[in-house]
Design a protein that fits this description.
mainly beta
Length: 72
Amino acid sequence: MLKSDILPRAFYFKQGGEETRLADPNTDWTAEQVMGFYSGTYPILTNAKIEGPEIKGDEVRYSFMTTLGTKG
Protein backbone atom coordinates (compact mmCIF):
# COMPACT_ATOMS: atom_id res chain seq x y z
CA MET A 1 0.00 0.00 0.00
CA LEU A 2 1.22 3.47 -0.83
CA LYS A 3 1.57 6.01 1.92
CA SER A 4 1.53 9.74 1.30
CA ASP A 5 2.81 12.40 3.65
CA ILE A 6 2.62 16.16 3.49
CA LEU A 7 6.15 17.50 3.60
CA PRO A 8 6.77 20.49 5.86
CA ARG A 9 7.91 23.75 4.29
CA ALA A 10 11.14 25.44 5.32
CA PHE A 11 12.48 28.82 4.26
CA TYR A 12 16.15 29.69 3.91
CA PHE A 13 18.23 32.79 3.27
CA LYS A 14 21.92 33.61 3.36
CA GLN A 15 23.31 36.52 5.32
CA GLY A 16 27.01 37.10 5.89
CA GLY A 17 27.89 33.69 4.46
CA GLU A 18 25.65 31.90 6.95
CA GLU A 19 22.50 30.09 5.86
CA THR A 20 19.53 30.68 8.14
CA ARG A 21 16.56 28.31 8.30
CA LEU A 22 13.17 29.81 9.07
CA ALA A 23 10.24 27.68 10.21
CA ASP A 24 6.87 27.91 8.50
CA PRO A 25 4.75 30.25 10.67
CA ASN A 26 1.45 29.34 8.99
CA THR A 27 0.89 26.57 6.45
CA ASP A 28 -1.99 28.51 4.88
CA TRP A 29 0.26 31.45 3.92
CA THR A 30 1.93 31.85 0.55
CA ALA A 31 5.72 32.10 0.35
CA GLU A 32 5.32 35.86 -0.21
CA GLN A 33 3.32 36.20 3.01
CA VAL A 34 5.94 34.23 4.94
CA MET A 35 8.67 36.49 3.56
CA GLY A 36 6.66 39.55 4.61
CA PHE A 37 6.18 38.08 8.10
CA TYR A 38 9.92 37.53 8.58
CA SER A 39 10.97 40.85 6.99
CA GLY A 40 10.16 42.58 10.29
CA THR A 41 12.87 40.50 11.98
CA TYR A 42 15.22 40.27 8.98
CA PRO A 43 15.02 43.56 7.00
CA ILE A 44 17.26 42.08 4.28
CA LEU A 45 14.20 40.11 3.10
CA THR A 46 12.29 43.23 2.02
CA ASN A 47 14.10 43.19 -1.35
CA ALA A 48 14.46 39.44 -1.74
CA LYS A 49 13.05 37.20 -4.44
CA ILE A 50 11.73 33.71 -3.87
CA GLU A 51 13.21 30.60 -5.46
CA GLY A 52 11.56 27.24 -5.16
CA PRO A 53 9.87 25.15 -4.09
CA GLU A 54 12.44 22.39 -4.18
CA ILE A 55 12.07 19.07 -2.41
CA LYS A 56 15.23 18.44 -0.46
CA GLY A 57 15.38 15.61 2.03
CA ASP A 58 12.15 15.50 3.97
CA GLU A 59 11.06 19.10 3.45
CA VAL A 60 9.88 21.50 0.77
CA ARG A 61 12.52 24.19 0.57
CA TYR A 62 12.05 27.81 -0.45
CA SER A 63 15.02 30.16 -0.73
CA PHE A 64 14.85 33.91 -0.25
CA MET A 65 17.56 35.31 -2.50
CA THR A 66 18.95 38.81 -1.94
CA THR A 67 21.48 40.84 -3.86
CA LEU A 68 22.23 43.17 -1.00
CA GLY A 69 25.92 43.32 -0.22
CA THR A 70 27.10 41.91 -3.54
CA LYS A 71 29.06 43.78 -6.18
CA GLY A 72 28.50 43.66 -9.88
